[in-house]
Every structure is written in structure tokens, then in C-alpha cells.
Amino acid sequence: MKKGLILEGGAMRGMFTAGIIDVMMENGIDYDGAIGVSAGAAFGCNYKSKQIGRVIRYNMKYCNDRRYSGIGSLIKTGNIYNTDFAYGEVPLKYDVFDFDTYQSNPMDFYVVCTDIETGKAVYHNYGGKDDHCFDWIRASASMPIVSQIVEIDGQKLLDGGIADSIPVKYFEKIGYDKNVVVLTQPEHYQKKKNSLMPLLRVKYRKYPKLVEAMEKRHLVYNQTLAYIEEQEKQGKLFVIRPKEKLQIGKVEKNPDKLKEIYDIGRETAASQISEIKEFLNTYI
Which positions does the motif DGA/G occupy (predicted)? Predict the structure, then answer.
């Protein structure tokens, strides 16, 4: 039996995920592998580095810092989250990411990106500092329009959520058969077609396969949700989701709002921790 943790993205709805993973780490829950998409990758990697509280700490501290994110960064660099500061100075200098623990932890951590030339998902087992430093994490979290394309070893990459927002079937395919899924939308949520498609078609007209993937993203997403709900009913997946829609901006500048969503995640995990442990065959 291989135990897996699957983390959906959702920009700063990921503060909910941060609260979930901190409580699971505090309760000694280990996984054989985890996979994160977009914010799920950016925040979930802290599970493998075992850094409880790091996600909420650095986001609250820097969310209002112009060096970290905002329109100024977007105009200047083409990235709403500043690459040099958010993926360089913060994790390497100010709130240091523990690469030593990450690399010594036997848990595998996968990130999902979208290859813009094929429109297909790229699943990468992220090795740490010598594996292009944070470029794989950055690529997974590079939202269309507000982020530059990230190129790694000749592949041009953007947000993994375009091609595979909730990679349950991929994790099952590679042998993870006891999976906990963290969603950032409430039960019965259905994704609608992206209202920005006219702009996306123009901006990415050189990449028709990417545009095609964006056109059908909502359909693929909703099909995945239906599969998850069926597997959940059969007891084959354990799903953690917020009870209500999380009211938070994609690039949230209010640290109190970040903390509010983080605390909702903590409360949600704490209320289900015994069930999670039972599902994974680990006990209090």
C-alpha cells in the first residue's frame, strides 16, 4: 500500500491547504508521496521539508511587500509574484527553505506543470535545490496572463492546473492506492468556462494546444470532481474540502485574511484528524 497526498491549487485559497498540512504534520502523519498543483506545489513542498508554519509565516510577512507581489511586479517583470524575491530571496535568505531535510526525506514530491506546446500535463518528481532550484515549483504556479512562461530543459511550462488541476488518476496510475485529496472548493462546486478566453486566445495564439486545453479545462475539472466524489463514496479516497466558498483574493494583500483562511484549514483538519488516521491505517 502506498499512501499519497494530493493537493489542488487555487492561488491564495492555498492558505486553506497550508492549515491542513500543518495540522497533519503536527499529528505525525506521513505519506509515501505527495503531488501538488500550482499553489498546492508551492505550499505542499513544505511537507517534505517538514517546516510546520512556514507557509503562513512568510505569506503574512511579505504579502504587502512590493518586492514580493503586485501590479508593480507584473508591469516590471511580467510576473505578478516577483521571481527574484518570492522564489529567490525569501526561500534562500529570509525564511529559508530546508533543502537538506527535503532531500533526505524519503517521501517523493511531485509537481504538475502544463507544457504549453503540447497542452499536456508534465508530472515531475522534484529533487530539490540541484533540480533547477525553485523553477519547477514556479512553473507549476505560473498563472496564465500574469506570469511569464518558464522554460526548463527545453520545455516551456505554465500552471499545472490548466492540464490537470487535481491529479488523482495520475497518482493512482503510478501506484498510490491510499490517497488523501485536499480540495480548495466546497462540495458540489462546478467550474465554469473561463470568462477570459478571448484574451487567452490572443495572448497564447502561438500555442494552439495550450488554448485548446484552456478551452476545455472546466469540462476536465468537473469530470475529475465527479470521479473523486464517486471514489469518496466507495471509501477509496479521503477528501478534505472547505465547507463554504473561501473568500480570499488570488493575490491577497491582507495578512489577516490569509490567517483567517489558514485557520479554517487548521480547524477543518483538526475536526477530521482521527478519520484521516483511520483511513491511512495509522492510529492515534
Answer: 159-161
Q: Is the Cβ–Cβ distance between 236 and 230 less than 8 Å?
A: no
Where does the pLDDT of residue 98 fall: very low under 50, low under 70, confident under 90, or very high at 90 and above?
very high
* Contacts (Cβ under 8 Å, ≥6 apart) of 245: 185, 186, 189
Catalytic residue among 22, 38, 142, 147: 38
Q: Which of 22, 135, 159, 164 is catalytic?
A: 159
Would residue 159 show up in a list of annotated catalytic residues for this protein?
yes
Residue 18: pLDDT over 70? yes
pLDDT (tens digit per residue) in 206-240: 999 999 999 999 999 999 999 999 999 999 999 99
Contact residues for 264 (Cβ-Cβ < 8 A; gap 6+): 16, 19, 242, 246
Which residues have a Cβ under 8 Å from the Cβ of 227 and sit 6 or more positions away?
168, 169
**What residues contact residue 62 under an 8 Å CB cut-off, 6+ apart?**
68, 69, 85, 86, 90, 94
C-alpha cell at 70: 503586485
Q: Answer yes or no: are the C-beta atoms of 8 and 160 closer than 8 Å.
A: no
DSSP state of 13: G
Residue with cell 498510490: 176
CA distances (Å), origin 204, targets 31, 119, 181, 191, 211: 38, 11, 31, 22, 7
SS3 category, 6: strand
Beta strand spans in the chain (E): 3-7, 33-37, 108-115, 121-125, 150-152, 155-159, 178-182, 237-240
Check if 38 is active-site.
yes
CA distance 14 to 56: 10
